[in-house]
What we know:
By secondary structure, the chain is mainly α. 71% of the residues lie in helices and 0% in strands.
Amino acid sequence: MGxxxxxxxxxxxxxxxxxxxxxxxxxxxxxxxxxxxxxxxPTAKSLGRLSxxxxxxxxxxxxxxxFIFGFGWAKPVPVNFGNxxxxxxxxxxxxxxGIIANMIFAFVAFLLFRLLxxxxxxxxxxxxxxxxxxxxxxxxxxxxxxPPLDGSKILMGFMSERFQYYLSRLEPYGLFIIIGLLxxxxxxxxIAFFRWIILSLIGLLLP
Length: 207
């Protein structure tokens, strides 16, 4: 169900879902730009994208799709990999940054849930539940190795330049490929597998 229907039918749940969703996406993109800046690329910083302001990150079409269909996207933080001190490491570290940020958010949500023990169905419990689940899904989804998702760039960092070239050629069509595979349910097993890995890692860290 899209957020628009949720806003109309259940405004409280809409708020408890929209806030963690919005800032989970923002933190994901911000992490890309921050790591790129640390590795020598000032592009995101010079464009004002190292910011927590939603206005800096929201994509009009992606936001509309999110409200109507429940599937959307933010504006990717621009990264010039040619500016990085080490291009190959940059592909891996910069592309991993957003995924790691989402995993940290999920870990913090689980940790707070365990420490605070909020009553089931309460506002804090619902908020922390959505915060954890949204970040796990974002991390798992972005691990898919199809351009322009982060998983493809992480994979490029370990592969030859020739493989990088062929994979990058898919990027103009990647969004359509992803939407088609999602519609067919072909990506569900892969997302479930990545989700299991993320939950397993978080489980190892929780006291």
